[in-house]
Amino acid sequence: MAIGIYHRTPDGLEPVNGPGISPDGFLDFCYHIDYINRYRVMFMSGSDYEDCCLRFSFLSPGVTYEIDNIALLESVSCDVSYNGDIAKIKFTPGNNLSELASLAPEGAIEIPSDCISLEAEYDGEPYGLDVMTAEYHDDGYLYVWLDDDSFEGLEKISFSFHNPVDDPSIALKYIKDIDTATNDAVWALLPDLIQQRAFHNPEVYVTSHGKISWLVTSNLFDYNHTDAPSDLDSITMTFRSALAPDFEESITAQLVSADGWSYSESWHVSDYIVDVDNDDHETYTVVFRPDSLNNQDNKQLPGKYIFKLGDVRFWSACQHIMTDYSVSVYFSGTNSIDKKAEAEPQKELNRHYSPDGRMIPSDSPGMHIIRRADGRMEKVLVK
């Protein structure tokens, strides 16, 4: 089935122009497969026609189609699907979500969880859902993870979004209109969306950019701008979400040289600690220790290294939540941070990323997102 929007002229039907409408008048639409097909269409036009119509074109002759509950609404909407404890949201008008996420090297940016509201019914009674984290991703979707809960068994699930308009770095804008004189897009802040219906989709699953939202801190972060002692014998990683009961069976930890020489040492889980932070939220800390504690050569580690943590499995109703982390650390070559002046730290270089989050050479032409050595971010056009 194809759907088009047209206005009548003395010469017949002519396509209406605007975002979400192809040059020949056809509409882009989203659908959900449930016990019936549910179609949601979004289009916008700056033109004011008195005589318009929607045209439904059925592409398979001899097939019976049933259409019901057609509603034409003036609204800004979104497409919401869920599976397990993950919700995936696509804002249907053209918007800047992907651009905001691509400014981060990881290709994702966390937004406050209080921007999201999820409601449902369980056995006919209202049921509130707590959000663990929400992230814009550079694929153009907003992903939401529930906190110690699941969508399974719930009915009438609805999604509400409160646009964080006070923070330009995460405020969403959409294409409200097209300037007919210049053919340029006219942008406006996306209004709050209230109780948008959500539908189940078993194909929805994604691994979180957990390095942004789930990893709270690590003792290695303290050494981003200072030198770690070369006799460091434990590394801690603190997470916002509980790890799966069997996480130790899949998790891998290695300290790998980043200076071009082949060195790799395995580390293992020593302790798993559940604590409560200052905001009364539980935190989950894993303590790692090197496998070869008694090897003096491995204890003295001057230079730059990367601590790679792989296959970190979180507790989740959806069994696909597994992610990786990489944290850089510079060892001073001495046994005390107080003596770091005796070592010559490796100079941190500016890093260049493309708008889609890939690291690129500094001299390649095009738009660059530059992360300076001091942590500042800049957007520069390189010719």
Description:
The chain has 383 residues and is mainly beta. Helix content is 5%, strand content 44%. The protein has 4 helices and 26 strands. The chain has helices at residues 97-102, 210-213, 247-250, 296-299; strands at 2-9, 12-15, 29-33, 37-41, 52-57, 78-83, 86-91, 108-111, 116-122, 125-129, 131-137, 142-146, 155-161, 173-178, 185-189, 193-200, 215-218, 235-239, 252-257, 264-276, 282-290, 303-313, 322-331, 351-353, 366-371, 377-382. The chain has a 9-stranded mixed beta sheet with strand order 8-11-12-7-6-16-13-9-10. It has a 7-stranded antiparallel beta sheet with strand order 17-18-21-20-19-22-23. It has a 3-stranded antiparallel beta sheet with strand order 2-1-5, with no helix packed on it. Strand 25 and strand 26 (377-382) form a beta hairpin. 23% of the residues are buried.
Distance between the termini: 45 Å
Taking all Cα atoms into account, the compactness measure Rg is: 26 Å
SS class: mainly beta
Biggest sheet details:
9 strands, mixed
What sequence of helices (H) and strands (E) makes up the elements? EEEEEEEHEEEEEEEEEHEEHEEEHEEEEE
On the 0-100 scale, what is the average pLDDT? 76
Could you estimate the helical fraction of the residues in percent? under 10%
Strand order of the largest sheet: 8-11-12-7-6-16-13-9-10
Discrete helix count: 4
Looking at the structure, what is the overall shape? Answer: globular
The count of DSSP E runs of length 2 or more, i.e. the number of strands, is 26
Strand content: 35-45%
Low-confidence stretches: 294-298, 334-348
